Structure formats: structure tokens, C-alpha cells
Amino acid sequence: MIALTPDTPYYAVIFTSLRTEGDHGYSDTAILMEELSKKIDGFLGIESAREEIGITVSYWSSLESIKTWKQQADHRIAQRKGRELWYSAFKVRICKVERDYEFSL
Amino acid sequence: MIALTPDTPYYAVIFTSLRTEGDHGYSDTAILMEELSKKIDGFLGIESAREEIGITVSYWSSLESIKTWKQQADHRIAQRKGRELWYSAFKVRICKVERDYEFSL
């Protein structure tokens, strides 16, 4: 679903990735990480899709909340496995959302 | 592919969308819009994936380049068709990319 984020400004982390072959526990961990990230104070929402590349955008109220999530213990283990097993490449972009607008039928 | 963007800061436009049923000329226009956006001065790259939702992130050197693309004539026609035909909902977020880092095997 399209994330229901508050009025700007807020923050976005754009995580773009290329997967390696095979699952290697990736799918279970992805579900768990999404559940855990939602428990972090300042988490606002998440959007995700994968075709040739995967794009996951998570939204946060502050840079501090992003840092808290980056340093969360289980997430740190997942980050290590990401480099060792799951991703052939990724890029992380930390952004300030300055303006937004939307449309719906 | 993961977009090869320059050193921060630069800008990102996160376009998250839900499609209506059927193509209605969407696919051809999507390809054309990607080609046209690349011709705008300040365009840096684009990343796209669709599953339940579609996420397209385009990268730009400045807010002015984003505005130029938003007002481009063919793009304006596509935006109107987007509201009339292709999307049941979308959200556009204009962001300043403050920091980034990457990994590759």
C-alpha cells in the first residue's frame, strides 16, 4: 500500500538492491525486519516492490529514528547477512521529504 | 539497474502508485516518458519496480530540473491521462538526498 505519511517535512530511506540467486533465509528475515522496524519510535510507513531491482522506501520522523533502526541489534545481523548472502549490490539514500502531494479516485 | 548518482546533495522524486485494470496505452507512455525525462537538463537517473504497488524514483540535480520536467508538454498530457485512466491512486514525494552509501560484490 501507499504509505500514509504525515505533513512534510519527514525523512525517507530509499533502499535499492539487486538480489543474489536463491532465498538463503531472505524472505523470512525481510518479513521480520519490516515488523521490527514498525516498532521503532518515529517509524511512519514503508513501501516496497521488486522486479529487476528491489526498491524499499521507509519513512521516518527524524534522522535520529533512522539511526536507531540502523543500530537495532537484529537489524545489524540482517545487514551483515545482506552483504554476505542476499545482495550482489545495494544503495541506501537518506532523504528529507520536503514536499508531497497525492491523488486518489 | 541501481542509478549511478553523483555525490550528495541531489534530489529524488518518489512516485508511488496503484494502477487501474488494463493497459489503456500506459506501457508505451511509460517508456516514452522515461526517454523524455532523460533529456531534461539535471536528470541523474531512474529506478523502477512494480508488484502490488509501483515505485519509481527519479533523481535530479536541482528542484528547478524537477519543475522543468513536471511542466514538459508531453509529460503534462501523460499526467492528465494518469489521473483519468491509469492510476487509482498515487503519491509524489519530492526529497533532498542528504546522504548515501552503497555496497557491491
What are the salient characteristics of this protein?
homodimer; alpha+beta; globular; 105 residues; Alpha-Beta Plaits
Layout of strands and helices, then pairs:
The structure is a homodimer of 105-residue chains.
Chain A: E1 10-19, H1 26-38, E2 43-50, E3 54-60, H2 63-71, H3 73-86, E4 87-104
Antiparallel strand pairs in A: 1-3, 1-4, 2-3
What would you say this structure looks like, in words?
2 copies of one chain form a homodimer. With 105 residues, the first copy, chain A, is of the alpha+beta class. Chain A has one domain: Alpha-Beta Plaits. Helices cover 34% and strands 41% of the residues of chain A. Chain A has a 4-stranded antiparallel sheet with strand order 2-3-1-4. In chain A, a hairpin with a 3-residue loop joins strand 2 and strand 3. In chain A, helix 1 runs antiparallel to helix 3. The first copy, chain A, is globular. The two termini of chain A are 15 Å apart. The relative contact order of chain A is 0.30. At the A-B interface, strand 1, strand 2, strand 3 and strand 4 of A face strand 1, strand 2, strand 3 and strand 4 of B.
